[in-house]
Amino acid sequence: MILRPVSAEDHADVLALNERNVELLAPLDEDRLDYLLGIADTAAVIDVDGAFAGFVITFASGSSYDGENFGWFTARFADFSYLDRVVIHEDFRRRGLGSEVYDELESTSGRPLFALEVNLDPPNDASLAFHHARGFVEVGQRVSGGHLVSLFLKTLPTG
Known about the structure:
- With 159 residues, this protein is α+β, with helices and mostly antiparallel strands.
- Helices cover 30% and strands 35% of the residues.
- The chain has a single domain (2-155), classed as Aminopeptidase (3-Layer(aba) Sandwich), CATH 3.40.630.30.
């Protein structure tokens, strides 16, 4: 698995995968994708032997990103990396790619904190278990996009 920058040729795959998982994500169209790619800290395709296996988008604190949950973290923490979305293509799930992606993001963020949210209502039990096992801790809850979410942070090694 490698993470490579999202190219124009990837847009259709990114948009289609986001749409198939939109109940767990925010909606995304071409204009919004272009905007996010322009301000993202990481905007990468998950590439497995040349195949599109998913994508990931993160933002660094101080970004002009307008996401509500990013804003919540910004109001409370000075220096963090925020995971906006990571989506694994259904043909590549249950292979450990999520862990590989997180390992890469956590080791290269250059920030002391890694922030994200997970749905509590409706519950995303698999995601909650995954994040707890990786050492994320809940630092708050809020209603976002009509869903109750748990706001998670992980302290990353510095050095």
